[in-house]
Write a structure and sequence with these properties.
This protein is an alpha/beta fold. It is built from 11 helices and 10 strands.
Length: 316
Amino acid sequence: MDSSVIADRRRLRRKLGFWRLAAVVLLVALGFALYRYTLGEGGTGRPHIAHVTISGLITDDDELLERLKKIETDDQVKAVVVSISSPGGTTYGGEKIFKAIRAIAARKPVVSDVRTLAASAGYMIATAGDTIVAGDSSITGSIGVIFQYPQIQPLLDKIGVSLQEIKSSPLKAEPSPFHDASEEAKTMIRNMVLDSYGWFVDLVADRRKLPREDVLKLADGTIYTGRQALKAKLIDTIGGENEIRAYLASRNVDKDLPMVDWDRKSNTPFLLAGAVSRLITILGYDDLAKGQDINAILPQKLLLDGLLSVWQVGRD
């Protein structure tokens, strides 16, 4: 082959390689721009309604609290929908989330969307919204507080193990799993539970604009369907997205604004897929982007410390 032809082909390959590289750089730049445009600093760069899902057992969740704070201060967020699917959890965890949602509500409308279950601390969080929407068969209520501790002394007796202790005062480290609680210890824990319970009752009475005496009648641990909760004035509306949109429209929120999921940040290789999903939502094809987190429907067994406000079904 002629040397000039070979040289021409080499030059052509170099030019082609240059344009291929330029195309890759351009795609990366476009991808980054797409990511910044659709995700921004924790959310989208355009006006939208933020959607937050709170599911599973409620704990002191720093990541969720930080996300709620960003929603509060993001001027592109015009309203918030908090979907709740939780049997409850720690009273303190519910308190922190409740206060974070109330801080948002001071600046923009917030709707609490009760899904399958929002009981105990889950209902506590729901009361933080400006209005509560639930399904006919949603489960809610279970207003109350519980303190639990194991008792393993009978097992230790069977295997011939004993525990000796020396402590500074009778109520130190009480109640103990290694012996029956004294009446003084039971009184101490009962007073603590009742104090937290009174705080919970006052919170519901204030948020639902109900007399405290009426809330006390409802706050005996009873759970309610959405229909029952509506009659008891524990929720405001039976419905779903249409009712949520109607309420937000009454608060001067544009009904055509996209609803964008503010999910927990992911460090997986599928981050670009999340950006594309949000872009699809912004363009109005949100039905194509909807999906459920499999973790939200998996049973969760956690060791929880402190006072609990949780609805429990049966025992293992």
